[in-house]
Amino acid sequence: MMKCRLSIKPGIQAKLELVVLVVILMLAAGLRLGAPAIAEFKRDEANLSRLALDLARGRSVPLLGITSSVGAPNPPISAYLFAVPYLVDDSGVAATLFVGLLNVIAVILTWWLARRTFGARAAAVAGILYAAGPWAVIFSRKIWAQDLLPVFVVATVLTGLSGFREGKRWAKIAHWPLLVLTMQIHYGAFTLFPLSLLMMFLWRDKEQGKSTRRFCLEFGIGAGIALLTAVPVLLGAYRAGLFSYTVIDEALNQGGSSMVIDGTALRYAWLLVSGIHLHALAGPDQFRYYLTTVPDAYPIFQLIPLGAALSAGWVVWQRINGVLSYKGTSPNQTKLDSDAVPCCHANVGDEGILLVAWLALPILAFTWQWTPVQLHYLIPMMPAAYILCGIGFDALCRWSKSVVASRIIMCVGCMAMGTIVVLQVVMFVGLMRFLDTHYTPGGFGTPLHLLLDVRNAILERYPSDVIIVSEGEIPDYDQEPAVWSVLLDRISDVRAVDGTRTVVVPAEGALELVLLSDSIEAGPFGDYWERNDGRDVFPQRPGDSSYLLRPIDDSSLAVLVVPIEPVRFANGVWLVGYIRQERALALVWKLDGAATQDYQAFIHLQDMDGNRIAQADRLSWPGRYWRAGDTLYLWFDLDALPQATAISTGMYSFEGDVYINVDVLDVAGNPAGQSITIPLD
């Protein structure tokens, strides 16, 4: 078999092709790498970054990733990949640029795949459309596992083509580890597996005449390496008990009768390829305003998925009729396309069918909604759609036997494509500016550079202890604790508290970072979160909550405390007083040190006859946050408080479904009951 002539011919055609490639590269890089700090950094990004940072710092090696949208943990491969940029920068900017760089490579690989398979003209169209595709760009600018997919998807297909079609041994071996790695990055890429089987089937004649021993050796090496890449997740799943019958049965029965067949996946695929509905990132409150700031270009954007669909239909029809052949060079070939067909391709019908399958499989896989389909599940099919647009445009230029007509078609097509690309760039740049300057609740989160301004102000003070005050306190589930535990990773002690019901005052000086939300300021400790003179207030986007940074000072609370004789509990806490309002009460505790588990605090209200008239329970504060000398204010809302003359309070923990009360200790350290009764003034 003759070797492919993959080198570009000298002359005007080669120079024009080089110019096009440079344009593709600059467009892809500018949109994906420009202004990297205008990026979201919310809970998922922070939790994935936490795993990567722990690996980069040598603290731990994760065996499972963060929880997926279907409730199961992801493999840890994404954390391993993101550990690379976190080795050099812990601000999140390098990791965001890392994602963008990988996606620039994905665009170039897509161009290369189209160039070596379908020619220069098809490659130019595919590369430019992919470089400028708004959703392709959006899914290239955030620390998300699925944003890593494109480069691995295209590399997997490329190695499959090189291995199964061209018989390259290294590619056959590399294909299987790449396939398994890609599926580990995000399970939505599982549709690549049937694509690999299809490649083996389409070019099965390449394997004929080879010894079974050679085939088994190639497959065995590739499969063995692939299995090694899966060892961490298999070990992590085993340790987490994910192979138990109960877990597997729940996974298989997820969705139940709600599983339906509908067109959501097709609609999402159309949306992704076209670049429409960018206004979704502006959120339900602001999207209409955003649309008034940009051209009404959505209708023309839909020519792209329409072209991909028509091209896919044409490929299938031509393949069925056995006439799809790019053998040789057409006399009507244009300048950009003078080396359009590598000489080793007798018929690209099989390659065309592969593209159609690449496009269709993700859509078909989620048309039956065995799990609620998400927009990012369709990311793997985007390169195929743009390449199909390219070969459709190339075929259209070849359609007429007249050189003049062919050039007119090409000029009109280039003008239309150029208009679309310019409008897409304008829409995307306008979107970035809008998201950076407008509060978008329910849409794009706070841009990273605004968070970094706060981070830099904190790091300049060299604190050893920072308390993050927001409406949550668990990093796995609450956004602010997750975000700041990563951005402040250099600080030795970063803890979070739910400021709507809790105040923590460390024994020694610490900084307090407060998200001044309406719930915080309207809560029972609202006066405590007073802004002072505003010098340490960091405004976010107009209309959004601001951050307050200040040294912790509880003097305004301390004067309200009704002190009692300190009562010691067996878990290392002392009850030292309370604060009473009309229908709410705060218990004041002193902590001896970190706790090995979490504890619930309870209050029972008693009337003058000793009868219980109301009760309330709540999580005290996560035990891993406790430090010796901390003062802990725990708030309880109690409507019956005006009728109460005494309270009975204490703590308890859970072991499975069993309640275990914490003993009250006497002066000798012996158990003296499981609650303490305090008369109310």
Give a quick set of tags describing it.
single chain, 681 residues, alpha+beta, Immunoglobulin-like, 3 domains, six-stranded antiparallel β-sheet, five-stranded mixed β-sheet, 23 helices, 14% strand, disordered N terminus
SSE blueprint:
Elements lengths: L11 H22 L9 H14 L20 H10 L6 H26 L1 H13 L1 H5 L10 H17 L3 H17 L6 H11 L9 H18 L1 H9 L5 H8 L11 H11 L8 H10 L5 H4 L1 H19 L27 H19 L14 H17 L4 H35 L10 H12 L5 E6 L8 H9 L5 E6 L3 E4 L5 E6 L1 H5 L14 E2 L7 E6 L3 H4 L3 E8 L3 E8 L3 E8 L8 E7 L5 E8 L11 E7 L8 E10 L2 E4 L2 E2 L10 E4 L2
Parallel strand pairs: 1-2, 1-4
Antiparallel strand pairs: 3-12, 4-6, 5-6, 7-8, 7-15, 8-9, 9-12, 10-11, 10-13, 13-14, 13-16
Describe this structure in words.
The chain is α+β, with helices and mostly antiparallel strands. It has 3 domains: 426 residues, no CATH class; 99 residues; 120 residues, Interleukin-17 receptor A/B, fibronectin-III-like domain 2 (Immunoglobulin-like). The protein is built from 23 helices and 16 strands. The strands form 3 sheets. It has a 6-stranded antiparallel β-sheet, with no helix packed on it. Helix 7 runs antiparallel to helix 8 and helix 13 crosses helix 16.
If you compute it from the alpha carbons, what radius of gyration comes out, rounded to the nearest whole angstrom?
31 Å
The tally of helices reads 23
Q: Could you report the average pLDDT, rounded to the nearest whole number?
A: 88
Secondary-structure class: alpha+beta
Number of domains: 3
What is the molecular shape?
elongated
- Multimer state: single chain
| Distance from first to last alpha carbon | 97 Å
Low-confidence runs of at least 5 consecutive residues? 1-8, 324-347
The portion of residues forming beta strands comes to 5-15%
Major beta-sheet overview: 6 strands, antiparallel
Helical amount: 40-55%
- Give, in spatial order, the strands making up the sheet with the most strands: 3-12-9-8-7-15
Q: Tally the beta strands.
A: 16
